[in-house]
């Protein structure tokens, strides 16, 4: 870099600019309230839903990254605090109704569902069919002690930059 002072004297300086990638994922966890058996309970908060007893519901998982150069990708989504019996333990890939082809695996263990995404995913909208236990009208927080929580992980690793960045975003619903 060469600069000239207001006195007309040129000066130069060398310096290095390090570019650090920044992963910036976003996620929204919700319930599809277009079904007749689901109502949004706005009095309890913007993320509160009621599902009629003995019916199923679709959890809506919407995650993305604002990155447009292709260096950032979503790698994993974890759902926590899913009550026992709402999905079987093991492979739950077949319970997704979005059919995006972006899910490599989805496995439930205990109250956690770990969703591994296919390489290169920058956005995903999936619907997960859950069936609350029959004859149980308790809410999620009462059953497991907390709300349903979704966490998405993104990695930004541009090929010409030696560093990479991993970040998570979290959302919950009642």
What keyword list fits this structure?
174 residues, mainly beta, six-stranded antiparallel sheet, three-stranded antiparallel sheet, elongated
Question: How would you describe the overall organization of this protein?
Answer:
Strands 8-9-10-7-12-13 form a six-stranded antiparallel β-sheet, with no helix packed on it. Strands 3-6-11 form a three-stranded antiparallel β-sheet, with no helix packed on it. A hairpin with a 2-residue loop joins strand 9 and strand 10. 3% of the residues lie in helices and 44% in strands. The protein is an all-beta fold and 174 residues long.
Quick synopsis:
The chain contains one helix and 13 strands, in the order E-E-E-E-E-E-E-E-E-E-E-H-E-E. Strand 1 and strand 2 form a beta hairpin.
């Amino acid at each position: 870099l060469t600069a000239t002072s207001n006195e007309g004297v040129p000066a130069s300086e060398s310096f290095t600019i390090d570019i650090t990638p920044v992963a910036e994922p976003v996620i929204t966890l919700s319930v599809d309230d277009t079904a007749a058996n689901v109502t949004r309970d706005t009095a309890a908060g913007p993320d509160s839903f009621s599902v009629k007893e003995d019916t199923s519901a679709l959890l809506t998982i919407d995650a993305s990254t604002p990155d447009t150069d292709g260096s950032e990708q979503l790698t994993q989504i974890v759902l926590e605090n899913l009550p026992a019996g709402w999905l079987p333990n093991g492979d739950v890939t077949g319970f997704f109704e979005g059919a995006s082809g972006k899910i490599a695996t989805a496995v439930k263990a205990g109250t956690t569902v770990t969703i591994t995404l296919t390489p290169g995913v920058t956005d995903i909208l999936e619907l997960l069919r859950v069936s609350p236990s029959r004859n149980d009208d308790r809410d999620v927080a009462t059953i497991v002690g907390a709300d349903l929580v979704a966490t998405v992980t993104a990695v930004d690793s541009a090929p010409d930059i030696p560093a990479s960045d991993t970040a998570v975003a979290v959302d919950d619903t009642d």
